[in-house]
From TrEMBL:
Family: Belongs to the shaker potassium channel beta subunit family.
InterPro entries, per the entry: K_chnl_volt-dep_bsu_KCNAB-rel (IPR005399), NAD(P)_OxRdtase_dom_sf (IPR036812), NADP_OxRdtase_dom (IPR023210)
Keyword Oxidoreductase: yes
Signal peptide (UniProt feature, chain positions): none
Domain of life: Bacteria
Record GO cellular component, one term: cytosol
Keyword NADP assigned: yes
Name assigned to this protein: Aldo/keto reductase
Keyword terms, alphabetized: NADP, Oxidoreductase
Listed Pfam families: Aldo_ket_red
GO molecular function (one): oxidoreductase activity
Domain called NADP-dependent oxidoreductase: residue spans: 16-314
Amino acid sequence: MRFRFLGNSGLKISELTYGNWLTHGSQVENDTATACVRAALDVGITTFDTADVYANTVAESVLGDALAGERRESLEILTKVYWPTGPKGPNDTGLSRKHVRESIDGSLRRLRTDYVDLYQAHRYDHETPLEETMQAFADVVRQGKALYIGVSEWTADQIRAGHALAKELGFQLVSNQPQYSMLWRVIEAEVVPASRELGVSQIVWSPIAQGVLTGKYRPGAELPAGSRATDEKGGASMIRSFLRDDVLGRVQDLRPVADELGLTMAQLAIAWVLANDNVAAAIIGASRPEQVHDNAKAGGVELPAEVLARIDEVLGDVVVTDPAETAKASPPQRLV
C-alpha cells in the first residue's frame, strides 16, 4: 500500500481508502461489514471514510465497532456532516454552528474515538453563512475533535472562499471529496486547478462509477440480479445515468486494455483515478471481503501515458466533463 500526503498538510493517507457508504448498516450484515474492514486492514489500508448520514448514523457505529481494538494512532478516520440525521428536525441538517457542534460529538461517540483525522462538509450549505460554518470548524479543530477539515462536492469558487476563511481562522482546509471516474470528470476543468493552487487534495468517491466500470453491465442485457442497479435503496438512482447502451458499449471496449495490463476492469478504473496527481486517495467500498482484496491490487499500478490516451479515445464523448455538474450536488435549500 502506498501513502500520499493530504493536501499541503503533513498527514499521509492510504491511496486506497475504505468507505462504507451504502453498505454498512444497510446492505450487508454487521459481521460481513466487519470482515470487509478486516480485509482492508489486511491489505494495508489505514484510512477509513464514513459519514453521519450513512444509514442514518448506523454506518459510523458499525465502523467504530469494526475498528475497536486497533491502535488509534495507526488509523486515519474520516467522517462528514451536512445531510439530515436523527429525527431530521429543522436543525438536524446543514452546516450551522449548532448542527456542526452536535454532529461532531455524535460522530465521535459512534466511532468510539476522541478525534477524527478529517472532518468534512458533506455539501455546501447555501442557507448558512460560510463564515459561521468555517468558525464552527475552527472551534472543532481547536477543541481537538478533528485534526483537519475538508469538504465534499464544493465548486472551485466555494473551495477558494472556504480556504481563505480557514487560513484567516488558523486552520487548514486540505481536501475535497468529489465523484470522479473515467466516465465522470467534471472536476478536471475548474476544481482540480484551483485545488492544486491552494494545496487541496481530492479524495474521490465512485472511482468505478457505481460498478459500471467493472464491465458487469452490458448493452441490451438484463441488469444482473442483486446488483446495485436493481437496488432502489442501495444506489440504483445514482447509477441510472450511466446505464445507457452507448456508455455500456464503450465500457466493454475497455476490456482489452485491462486484459493487456493484467488487470481487472475495476482495477484499471481505480488505477486511472490514482494517475491524477491531485488525487490523494480513491475510496473503495465492498459488500464482500474478496472485493477489497481484488480492488487493492490497483494500488501502486502505474498507467503509461499511451494507455491513458487510449482510454480517452475508447470512451470518447460519453465522458461527462461539464464543471457545472458540481454545483448541482449541493441543494439550494437544506433537506428535512
